[in-house]
Amino acid sequence: MKKFDTIYCDFDGTITKQDSVNVFLEKYTGEKWLESEKLWIDGKISSRENAIIQVGLLNNISQKQLDDYINSIKIDDYFLEFVDFVKLNNIKLTILSDGFDLFIKKVLERYNLNIPFYANMLTYRDGKFDIDFPYYNESCDKKAGMCKCNKVKEKSFCYIGDGTSDLCIAAKADFLFASKKLHEYCVKNNIKHSHFTSFRNIIDVLKEGD
Asked: Which of 3, 67, 182, 191 has the most CB atoms at less than 10 Å from its CB?
């Protein structure tokens, strides 16, 4: 593969071992969040509408419960090695997420990582949450809360992702690393990609371009 100056990467379920938003919703809403989630997956509502509905289900969560949950979020075993690799090779890394900035910020701080990111804005006060969409784009094909395609300015870039929120930008990447649902989608639709199960796989493929 050719070398890339820019890599964009999803967060939930890609950098993290599990989808931190979905696990949080399951923990504090039971199965209630799944109703709107299915509507979103089926294309009946936008991810922005889905996020508003799901955040509205979160009630009476203490600061300690929130902090304990965020501190429980684990990242891929090889992500720190991947960050070192891109720094060594002068590759610009940016996180694009249709998840919550609050989670991303705290996780990056815990690992002393200074990686630029774009995500939906989740605020917490007195046990209640509110969500805002500073990067919403009216012309977004997927009506995502955070339009990933709109943040990409380069003509040539590499993308790393795992799920439904990555479908649009994945089709525009010059080189794509895909796992889980995104990998299944690529296989079904004959989209060229490199399948990965950890960032160790990604490092190995990128090294082939050296």
From this structure: 182
